[in-house]
Design goal:
Blueprint lengths: L10 H9 L6 E8 L2 E7 L9 E2 L3 H15 L31 H6 L19 H7 L3 H6 L16 H13 L4 H10 L7 E5 L7 E6 L1 H12 L3 E2 L2 E2 L3 H9 L2 E5 L2 E4 L2 E8 L2 E10 L3 E6 L4 E7 L9 H13 L3
Antiparallel strand pairs: 1-2, 1-13, 3-5, 4-5, 6-7, 8-9, 9-10, 10-11, 11-12, 12-13
Amino acid sequence: MHYRFRSKAVFKDLEGKIQKGCFGKLNSFLLYADHENIAEYYFNGYNANTLHEFQSVTKSLQSILVGIALDKEYLKSIDVPIKVYFDDLPDIEWSNGKDKITVRHLLQMTAGLDWNEGHTSYMSLQNHSNLMAWSSNWIEYALSRPMLCPPGERFIYSSANPIIISAIFNKVYPHGHEAFITKCLFAPLEIKRYGYHRSESAPNILADVDILPKDMAKIALMLSQNGVYQGQKLLSANWVDLMLTTKADIGKENLQYGYGWWHKYVEVLGVKYACTYAWGYGSQHIFFVKELGLFMVCTGKNYEVTLHQGPFDLMRAVIELAIGA
């Protein structure tokens, strides 16, 4: 049984706290309960028609696109070694298990490539994500990294993985990755405004997306309805379930990952609630609390490490309201 809020008026106090910066520097907050939009606020000069960066939430979006590609049979399997897609890169050395990397490994962050990102500041020149962005060929840079361990053995967070998947979409869909997104996801959701970060040398390789928070909420709404949006089936319920429930420990307390989505328990008044979420640098999030029939979208500018917990504290506050605490 899903909980319902006593009234929408309970959010006025929460809005004031966000405005005061109690949860860091947030620019938008959208909340849905039982598929209904019950709160939508914007801050710091942003409004409903302002595009916002979503950073690594794009990784979660990429997982949705993989599911659609499987449904439409542009991808036959996520267990085919990715080597078959890159015959045009003859200088890549596919040794030490690199030839065993699959799309499944890329989605689960277990490709095994040596990649210094998850434990290094994005302001650092040692961060491989930055080095890839500055390289002349993103795919060649990523696939030229040596193997740190066999595929499937260890969680290694890498922004190269969705970039490699973008290149694969360009191989398997006749009109390329961006055309696939537009036709198979954005058009059915009536998402008309967006911007992708991309390589200057290969603009068909897509990185992070900028999008309206209310449009990101449409994507979340579709997932909350098992792949259906306004009566149209966009994604198989089996993939939605696999994507949002697959969990693997990553070596950090109370934190798991699987298929582009994070998982942790949020404790409120001594009760733990399972939370599945997309996580983008700077407080870009989609949170699902299935037990309560809730999902939340927020964006922000919390690029200081000390502000990282803001959205999670906001999610706890929302849960308190939901259970009538």
